[in-house]
Design a protein that fits this description.
Layout: H1 2-10, H2 16-29, H3 34-46, E1 50-51, H4 52-56, H5 65-76, E2 80-86, E3 89-94, H6 100-110, E4 126-127, E5 136-137, H7 153-160, E6 164-166, H8 168-171, H9 183-205, E7 214-216, E8 222-224, H10 235-239, E9 241-243
Length: 244
């Protein structure tokens, strides 16, 4: 069961080298079991309140006693807070956070910037892409939709070597969503726009020519990486981009 839980928690969220650094930071807090460490890794990289369903995908697990015991242990050690909103809604909050260089590495892994160096052709389903020192799967969450049949790597290579540039006129005006009403929603949008501007500045400073990593989902559909800038994002996000 522990192995099953660990696979669900990891979900290929982090490169191995970055996850190792996160675990090293956790070890400085205290001594934890393997399952407790996996829980803390997920909480730290998500950096926000996480529901039980988001954290573990409990509907996939028949026995959850080990999970409950681990959460109770972490709460007793005053590492996490457990908030019971209703019978079906429980949130987990970590009292610790990542800072400095390791936080930047995690953010870059979870919210990757476009690649400023043209990727080389890949020849296998696991490859180093861009400047990454870790091999990564071309399948989201490791699910192979082709079931070990011939994988169309040529499509990945064509898309990953397609160059984009930013439209400076569009990027000069931040995105605005007229359907936001609460102060919290507006603050979140302002924060997102500030983060997007940093990515825009980074790309402009590096020649305004960049590329996206692409992956297959479990259905065989293709998705580009990127959170702040993405060719499959909102209408505004799409308008930010031009083909080279």
């Amino acid at each position: 069961m522990l192995k099953e839980l660990t696979q669900i928690i990891e979900e290929d969220l982090l490169p191995a080298s970055v996850k190792k650094e996160v675990i090293s930071n956790i070890d400085k807090i205290g001594n934890f079991t393997e399952l407790e460490t996996d829980i803390l890794v997920t909480l730290l990289i998500k950096d926000k309140s996480v529901s039980i369903q988001q954290l573990f995908g409990l509907r996939k697990i028949e026995q959850v006693s080990a999970v409950i015991e681990a959460l109770e242990s972490l709460e007793q050690q005053e590492i996490i807070d457990i908030r019971i909103v209703s019978e079906k809604t429980v949130f987990i909050d970590c009292k610790y956070g990542l800072e400095g260089a390791i936080k930047e590495k995690v953010d870059n892994a979870i919210y990757p910037k476009p690649l400023i160096i043209k990727p080389k052709n890949i020849s296998s389903v696991k490859a180093k892409i861009g400047l990454s020192s870790d091999k990564e799967s071309i399948f989201t969450r490791g699910h192979d939709p082709f079931r070990r049949k011939t994988v169309p790597l040529n499509v990945i290579n064509i898309l990953q070597q397609t160059a984009f540039t930013l439209d400076e006129v569009v990027c000069s005006t931040p995105e605005r969503n007229k359907k936001l009403f609460t102060k919290k929603q507006i603050a979140a949008e302002e924060q997102h726009n500030e983060e997007t501007k940093k990515v825009v500045d980074y790309l402009m400073e590096n020649g305004n020519e960049f590329y996206f990593k692409w992956k297959y989902c479990h259905r065989g559909r293709m998705y580009p990486s990127g959170y702040h800038i993405n060719p499959q994002g909102t209408e505004y996000k799409k308008a930010m981009l031009n083909l080279k």
